[in-house]
Amino acid sequence: MDCYKEDMLGPVLLCMQAESLEEAIAIVNRSKHGNGASIFTSSAVYDQKFQNEVENGLVGINVPVPLSLPFSMFNGSEAAFASDLNFCGKAGVQFFTRIKSVVQQWKELPGRRVSFPCPPPSETEISSQEIAMTQPPTYESDVNGKALDKHETICEA
């Protein structure tokens, strides 16, 4: 069968019948263009055996065509992979994604208050002294004995 021997990139559905599950797995694994394979079964045992022993990257259980999702890897055979880049999975997402890093520092702005909801003190049991030590310094505060200028930044690791 030519479809079995060649890498067909068109909409082709090749249906083959096997006498046993072992024979079906052997037929699938013999193909050098093993991109995808499906099995139609009502047996969970056959389902597990097929998906564990078939060497194809795309396996369908009771679906005619196993389609690759954009975030899943292309796991076809080397013979079927005709590019130097894999545009599925992590590599594809990274290629088509513009990564942005955002660094922010929030300082106290005059006339604006930002409140963050906190659980009641009875639940956290933090003393007022501990709360004062965890709050970031304001412009007018004294850090390590040095008064801060409005343009200075404090970084602590």
TrEMBL record:
One of its GO terms (biological process) is L-valine catabolic process. One of its GO terms (cellular component) is mitochondrion. GO terms for molecular function: methylmalonate-semialdehyde dehydrogenase (acylating, NAD) activity. It comes from the Eukaryota. Pfam families: Aldedh (PF00171). Residues 1-102 form the Aldehyde dehydrogenase domain. This is Methylmalonate-semialdehyde dehydrogenase [acylating], mitochondrial-like.
